[in-house]
């Protein structure tokens, strides 16, 4: 069980810009397998960070926000890197919050697993597919991202593809 606990590197208690038309808490998941040269959250890239928040404490805090917040957004880092994202998404959904997911699409299979519990997805598109290896530093990153885009489109979940400018 403990191996499935979500590792969290930070959070924003209340945001109006991270989930469409909703007040949302944003949870920054620890870890990302890619190394985009422009990444603005380098402290979240290692699988284990120096300043982790306790997931159980976060859930308790969210219980006290029922009725005050509309949604919880899992961001990163890359939320789908951790097996614990599946249980975390379900737990948040069971508290009555809408669930948002920010992802780069690096783990399409785990993304598929959580899509059934998610209300909205924002996926970063890092330029042309051919540029992915150079942008991310990972050889098969374009294949992963393409598979993830197809999974999101097929899921019926509301989504936004965010094409990042100035990359490549
Ligand atoms: S995928 Fe996102 S979190 Fe990961 S290195 Fe790239 S910009 Fe940073």
Automatic annotation (TrEMBL):
Organism of provenance: Halorhodospira halochloris (Ectothiorhodospira halochloris)
Q: What is this protein called?
A: Ribonucleotide reductase of class III
Q: Which cofactor does it need?
A: [4Fe-4S] cluster
* Ranges of residues in domain Radical SAM core: 17-168
Q: Which domain of life is it from?
A: Bacteria
The record's section on SUPFAM superfamilies has: Radical SAM enzymes
Arranged from A to Z, the UniProt key words for this protein are: 4Fe-4S, Iron, Iron-sulfur, Metal-binding, S-adenosyl-L-methionine
Question: Could you tell me which PROSITE patterns the record lists for this protein?
Answer: RADICAL_SAM
Q: Coiled-coil annotation: which residues?
A: none
């Amino acid at each position: 069980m403990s191996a499935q606990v979500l590792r969290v590197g930070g959070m924003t208690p209340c945001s109006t810009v991270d989930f469409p038309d909703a007040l949302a808490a944003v949870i920054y998941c620890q870890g990302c397998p890619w190394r985009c040269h422009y990444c603005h959250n380098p402290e979240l890239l290692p699988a284990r960070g120096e300043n982790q928040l306790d997931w159980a404490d976060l859930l308790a805090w969210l219980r006290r926000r029922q009725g005050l917040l509309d949604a919880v957004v899992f961001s990163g880092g890359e939320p789908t890197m951790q097996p614990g994202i599946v249980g975390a998404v379900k737990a948040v959904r069971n508290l009555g919050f809408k669930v948002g997911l920010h992802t780069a699409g690096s783990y399409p299979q785990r993304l598929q697993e959580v899509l059934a519990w998610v209300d909205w997805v924002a996926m970063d598109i890092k330029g042309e597919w051919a540029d992915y290896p150079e942008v991310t530093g990972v050889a098969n990153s374009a294949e992963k991202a393409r598979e993830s885009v197809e999974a999101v489109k097929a899921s019926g979940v509301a989504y936004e593809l965010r094409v990042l400018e100035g990359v490549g």
